[in-house]
Amino acid sequence: MRQPKALIAAAVCLSLLLLPLEPAVACSAYDEHINRAASRYGVPAWLIKGVIAAESGFRADAYRPEPRVNDAAHGLMQVLLSTARDMGYRGSSAGLLDPATNIDLGTRYLGMMMERFGGEHELAVAAYNAGPGLVGRLVNQYGRSYAAIRPHLERGARDHVTRVMNYAAQFRAGQTPFACPAGAAPRAERSGNALTWLFLLAIVWALTNQ
């Protein structure tokens, strides 16, 4: 009777090997903050998620130096400290990594870009990424639509707008095009996964010690 037990134990062990330590989970951990900011600033939640997906890959600890402006982009929505200061933020640079703070400030700024550029999402996203001064000059010169200014943006800015809008369209359709990286997975999900591992290991131990 030892052979069937050994086979079962082997099958369970194989399942353990195939089970990831920290599975990618749909990035819903920040929905409460996103929905609150969306309501406060009149920005669609799906557009906010599109920006987060493209800007940081849903990593709350994302940090990118921006030497051209002597600043750094922080957190989920890659908010510059100088931009946050312009909006009245008086906290520290590290404080911008807090998801609630970051989403509130980033969404507020995105809403300002939408208001400035007539509610056109692509223009707002372009201004969020490349700066409202540049986009404003292009609009004045070539016309008040993204299609009119697109050929005159740098390729990086054009590609960024495309990524944001592609992600946003999928979020708007109720799809989950982006998964949290393991390090950004909600704590509850990671804890649940650890319990699954412990449970399966207990089964293996019980089967091999009968």
> What are the secondary-structure elements, in order, as H or E?
HHHEEEHHHHHHH
Major sheet: order of its strands? Answer: 1-2-3
Largest sheet: 3 strands, antiparallel
Shape: globular
CATH architecture call of the largest domain: Orthogonal Bundle
Distance between the termini: 10 Å
Q: Which runs of at least 5 residues are low in confidence (pLDDT < 50)?
A: 12-25, 185-197
Model description:
The chain is mainly alpha-helical. The protein has ten helices and three strands, in the order αααβββααααααα. The chain has two domains: 49 residues; 158 residues, Lysozyme (Orthogonal Bundle), CATH 1.10.530.10. The termini are close together.
Supply database-style keywords.
single chain; 210 residues; mainly alpha; Lysozyme; 10 helices; 5% strand; globular
